[in-house]
Specification:
The protein has helices at 38-53, 141-148, 155-167, 188-203, 232-242, 282-295, 310-318, 330-346, 348-355, 371-378, 406-420, and strands at residues 8-14, 17-21, 27-31, 57-63, 66-72, 78-80, 103-106, 115-118, 175-179, 207-212, 257-258, 265-267, 298-303, 321-327, 358-362, 384-388. The chain has 423 residues and is α/β, with parallel strands linked by helices. It folds into two domains: 3-80; 163-420, Rossmann fold. The chain has an eight-stranded mixed beta sheet with strand order 11-12-10-13-9-14-15-16, sandwiched between helices. A six-stranded mixed beta sheet has the order 3-2-1-4-5-6, covered by helices on one side. Strands 7-8 form a two-stranded antiparallel ribbon. A hairpin with a 5-residue loop joins strand 5 (66-72) and strand 6 (78-80). Helix 3 (155-167) packs across helix 11, helix 5 (232-242) crosses helix 6 and helix 8 (330-346) runs antiparallel to helix 9.
Length: 423
């Protein structure tokens, strides 16, 4: 189809707002949303016009980032389109400047070949081949499309890249995160799995999710089963051998359960045993922690509900960062607040963890009421309060990062980045 007969829409962009003109000349205002920036809003609006007309729409955008011509199809696919507007005051043609004109023709000598004189161009300054920007250009999705068409990254995309950079960093020595709330059913296991997945996927693996629970720990139920049916009770007697100089990095695989897509390992407890049969004393915890520190760069603890257990207290003493999950419900939030109050009174290290904690408020149901009030109630009492929107993939079954909605996945990346800032 010739662009001369293609419907044409226009968008004049000013910061987070735009004026959109349809092919019929109707004018309407557009504004950025909390989840999309103004460029995405414009492209979605143009795609709606293409769907309405049944043929692709040429979109001409003008603003502080220049002028761009796109061909937008009904399915949202986009291609570059050549500029087809005639020259006008608003759309002048571009001519070469005198310094860009390399040849000047002299026709004042009849009967002779034209005399041509070349202006020697000034040698350009040599750019450095060593850059200081360590960021990676996007290769897929909306960010890659915008980069290819000359758009700069939006504030949302810049924030997302910064969070991904933070969770992909490496530390000298093993770091530990404790996920804790004295009440059951508030999302501790979910939070543990999602944090481990984000850190492993973006940081290259070597992350352990440790079910530090005496009573019916369910991390193993919501994650993949590995090659060997082993738990923390099997690892404990093998720990001294795993710490010998001759132990290989793969020897730990017999005692943990690798998550094939999310790339972290799970150290399971045994939910079939009573607590009396799988208690871990302080010395045993310390031995297991030595093993974890040798084979992993990051450990995320999924804690139990018994805050008096030796393994629970030792977890707190061994952690760099505290993450406190709660549902958008008063009982869950009150339990989280009581935990933070108790830690502030316990000792100086526990007080530091409480004051620098990350509280995660998860909406267990669509449009959960009270989430705003609960989140605001923790403001000023901890370092960060984060929100996780409702997502059916978090309700039950296996926990996998790829099963989440994009909005939920971004929210977990923000939580992980907030935790990483405390490591």
């Amino acid at each position: 189809m010739s662009l001369d007969t293609t419907p044409r829409a226009y968008a004049n962009v000013t910061g987070p707002t735009a004026t959109f003109r349809t092919p019929e000349g109707a004018v309407e205002p557009l504004a950025a949303t909390p989840t999309d920036d103004i460029r995405q809003v414009i492209l979605h609006r143009a795609a709606a016009e293409a769907q309405r007309t049944g043929i692709p729409v040429e979109l001409v955008t003008k603003g502080d980032r220049g002028e761009h011509h796109l061909l937008v199809a009904a399915d949202g696919s986009i291609a570059s389109a050549p500029a087809t507007e005639p020259p006008s005051a608003d759309n002048p043609q571009t001519f070469e400047s005198p310094s860009q004109q390399r040849e000047e023709v002299n026709t004042e000598a009849p009967g002779h070949e034209p005399l041509r004189s070349r202006r020697a161009p000034e040698p350009p300054s040599r750019p450095s081949f060593i850059g200081t920007d360590s960021s990676v250009a996007p290769t897929t999705g909306w960010p890659a499309l915008f980069a290819r068409l000359g758009f700069g990254p939006s504030p949302l995309e810049l924030a997302r890249r910064d969070n991904e950079r933070i969770v992909s960093q490496q530390w000298a020595g093993c770091r530990t995160i404790a996920v804790a709330n004295g009440k059951g059913g508030v999302g501790k296991t979910m939070t543990t799995a999602m944090l481990a997945a984000v850190f492993a996927r973006y940081g290259g693996g070597n992350v352990l999710a440790w079910d530090n629970n005496d009573t019916r720990g369910t991390l193993g139920w919501r994650t993949e089963t590995g090659r060997y049916d082993t738990t923390i009770k099997d690892l404990l007697p093998a720990a001294p051998n795993l710490l010998t100089p001759g132990a290989g990095v793969s020897d730990i695989a017999r005692f943990v359960h690798h998550q094939s897509a999310d790339r972290y390992d799970v150290l399971r407890s045994n939910p079939e045993l009573l607590a009396a049969h799988q208690r871990i004393a302080t010395a045993e915890f310390d031995l297991l922690m030595q093993v974890a520190a040798r084979y992993y760069r990051l450990v995320v603890f999924d804690s139990g509900n018994d805050e008096s257990a030796e393994r629970w207290l030792r977890m707190v003493d061994s952690s760099y960062q505290l993450v406190v999950p709660t549902l958008a419900a008063p009982e869950s939030a009150e339990s989280a607040a009581l935990l933070l109050d108790a830690l502030r009174e316990r000792d100086e290290r526990s007080r530091f963890l409480a004051e620098n904690a990350v509280v995660v408020v998860t909406e267990a149901e669509p449009n959960a009421r009270g989430a705003d009030r609960i989140a605001s109630g923790f403001d000023g009492h901890v370092r960060t309060v984060a929100r996780i929107p409702f997502d059916p993939a978090l309700k039950s079954g296996a926990l996998r990062l790829d099963d989440l909605r994009p909005r939920t996945r971004d929210a977990w990346i923000r939580v992980a980045a907030a935790a990483a800032r405390g490591l």
